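Good morning,

Attaching, inline, the backbone tokens for the sequence recovery test we're adding to the shared suite. The designed sequence is right after.
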């Protein structure tokens, strides 16, 4: 009588060990692919977030209006107030972002959690005669547009006393007039998944043909400055 052939215990152990190794390799590859896909999605989200923020800022700043946002101690209307930490101006607010019409708008870099955040506030210009009555801007809650900022600063180009463009300055010296250009330079921290492209925009005054000419000349100035920096 022939003995029945079968697998030894050692052979079974070797087979199961090999199967376990193969399954581990398969699941490791699936997990690696999943994590790579997640990283790609998060980076795309970060790029889109920065793109949206820059588009909003470009739209609002390029259409800033020569309307007073506040008064100086001498009673002079100040149309664009800005320094390296904040800026305040008037611009039309699109209907889909809020009540249409000219809004006082403020951008500021605020310290938060060991870094900075970019905050945005806006409110419809009021015609209240009572100085003690709160305006829509005074009551507005700031919106955080961007987080994970390590450091940043605003800068401006304006006209000097001779009517010539200045270099980039960290504070508006003549807030009764509109600046020519606005810059926002941000350095993101390690939690950010995408760097901030240098943001520069020419301010277009509303209305007249002179505004259009100024817009064109300002854009040419911006291009010339960028080319000079690249050389």
């Amino acid at each position: 009588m022939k003995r029945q052939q079968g697998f030894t215990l050692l052979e079974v152990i070797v087979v199961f060990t090999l199967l376990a190794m193969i399954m581990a390799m398969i699941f490791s590859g699936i997990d690696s692919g999943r994590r790579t896909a997640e990283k790609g999605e998060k980076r795309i989200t970060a790029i889109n977030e920065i793109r949206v923020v820059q588009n909003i800022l470009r739209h609002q700043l390029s259409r800033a209006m020569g309307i007073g946002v506040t008064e100086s101690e001498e009673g002079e209307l100040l149309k664009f107030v800005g320094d390296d930490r904040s800026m305040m101006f008037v611009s039309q607010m699109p209907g889909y972002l809020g009540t249409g019409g000219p809004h006082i708008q403020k951008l500021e870099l605020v310290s938060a959690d060991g870094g900075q955040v970019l905050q945005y506030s806006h409110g419809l210009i009021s015609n209240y005669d009572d100085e003690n009555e709160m305006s829509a801007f005074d009551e507005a809650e700031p919106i955080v547009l961007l987080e994970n900022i390590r450091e940043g600063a605003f800068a401006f180009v304006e006209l000097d006393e001779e009517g010539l463009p200045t270099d980039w300055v960290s504070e508006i010296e003549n807030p009764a007039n509109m600046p020519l250009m606005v810059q926002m330079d941000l350095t993101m921290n390690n939690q950010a998944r995408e760097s901030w492209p240098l943001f520069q925009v020419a301010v277009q005054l509303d209305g007249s043909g002179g505004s259009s000419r100024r817009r064109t000349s300002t854009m040419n100035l911006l291009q010339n400055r960028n080319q000079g920096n690249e050389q």
